[in-house]
Fold:
Amino acid sequence: MYELLFWRYLDEIYLNNQEVYEALVEKQEVEGLAVLQIEVIVNRINSVFSDWERVDENSWKNPKGKGAFQVITTSQSIKIDCYGTEGKTMNKLVDIMEEFKCPLYDPQVPERYDEMSE
Structure:
């Protein structure tokens, strides 16, 4: 499994990304993060992946090849667990989240890919 996590900071706020990640994974509310339009974002993911089989409300799998992913949400974050998913598919998910101004935090590295990164 490869994990992707997305959130948006409120203006003028920037916190320790690893601590934010840990709190969000525990489904805790984090002061300084924006509330996301979860339903709109999930609908966007569904439309971009309309040729994928929607296994349930939060999971998709590729009917023509390998790969599946599950979307886990809080009011402030979108976590996407990718299973055997190709890089180009993960990049498509990152691009969708960029539309909502939610850059990727990659906990495997760990690094957040936004303009504040060193």
Notes: The first strand starts at residue 2 and ends at 6. The helical segments are 17-25, 38-48, 87-99. Residues 16 and 28 are 15 Å apart (CA to CA). The chain has one domain: 2-113.
